[in-house]
């Protein structure tokens, strides 16, 4: 829901210009985005979307609501840990500093792994979306099909590597939990 709230202007409504600035994805044309904007509440004469309409829109987020919620929690946790590190790192023991550096590297590695997986997924979805728009204007060439096939193969390779790293991560998490169980 916060993804919807973050694009609201001070008046509590979302104009088409704000909607377009936040949601333009390079796939839909401005006209198609405008049709989508007006279809959200079914009133073509309305110039702004209100909070209730935006909440209704959020119902289409599906499983990504949980992902976005988890990202918000993760963001807060990382910022709190970094703030604590900033305050305590210099006075920590050699072991404490070593663990802090290790955890920063491991956290960064895991986030990069997720980012690469998401980037591949986004590119694959965009590639699947483009032929629909290209078919109406141009025919998809063999070169474009070959490039798409090669791109998907490289993404699969990246995702396999990410799976290996994720498996390693769970091993790291298990090891850390054995050494120092989490406090709840």
Automatic annotation (TrEMBL):
InterPro entries attached here? EF-hand-dom_pair, NECAB1/2/3
Any GO BP annotation: regulation of amyloid precursor protein biosynthetic process
Its Gene Ontology cellular component terms are: endoplasmic reticulum; Golgi cis cisterna
What name is this protein filed under? N-terminal EF-hand calcium binding protein 3
């Amino acid at each position: 829901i916060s993804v919807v709230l973050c694009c609201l202007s001070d008046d509590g409504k979302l104009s088409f210009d704000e909607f377009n600035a936040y949601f333009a994805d390079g796939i839909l044309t401005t006209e198609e985005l405008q049709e989508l904007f007006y279809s959200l509440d079914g009133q073509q004469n309305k110039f702004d979307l209100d909070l209730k309409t935006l909440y209704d829109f959020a119902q289409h987020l599906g499983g990504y609501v949980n992902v976005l919620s988890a990202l918000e929690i993760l963001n807060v946790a990382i910022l709190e840990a970094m703030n604590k590190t900033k305050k305590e790192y210099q006075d920590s023991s050699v072991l404490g500093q070593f663990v802090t550096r290790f955890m920063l590297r491991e956290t960064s590695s895991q986030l990069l792994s997720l980012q690469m997986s998401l980037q591949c997924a986004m590119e694959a979805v965009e590639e699947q979306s483009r032929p629909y728009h290209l078919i109406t204007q141009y025919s998809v060439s063999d070169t474009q099909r070959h490039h798409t096939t090669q791109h998907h193969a490289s993404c699969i390779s990246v995702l396999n590597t990410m799976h290996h790293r994720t498996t390693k991560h769970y091993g790291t998490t298990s090891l850390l939990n054995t050494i120092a169980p989490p406090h709840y």
